[in-house]
Amino acid sequence: RADAAIERKKLRMESAHRPSCDIESLNQNFGEPEDIAK
Questions:
Q1: b/e map of 1-37 (b: 16 or more CB within 10 Å)?
Q2: What is the pLDDT of residue 12?
Q3: CB-based contacts of 33, cutoff 8 Å, min separation 6
Q4: Compositional bias of type Basic and acidic residues: which residue ranges (predicted)?
Q5: How does pLDDT run across 1-38, given as a tens digit for each residue?
Q6: In the chain, N or C terminus with fewer CB closer than 10 Å?
């Protein structure tokens, strides 16, 4: 679970440079959009 959290944190940093539609698809891939949005 900790590894997944680290991966989400990395993706969140990367997604800051991406269009919001890409961020949406990332959220859906992880199935925890509320977790990523924080």
A1: eeeeeeebeebbeebeeeeeeebeebbeeeeeeeebe
A2: 76
A3: 24, 27
A4: 1-21
A5: 788 888 888 877 776 665 565 666 666 666 555 555 55
A6: N
Smallest Cα–Cα separation from 36: which of 21, 18, 17, 24? 24
C-alpha 18/C-alpha 22 separation (Å) is 6
Distances (CA, A) of 19 to 4, 11, 24: 22, 13, 9
Taken in order 7, 3, 36, 13, the sign of the CA dihedral is negative
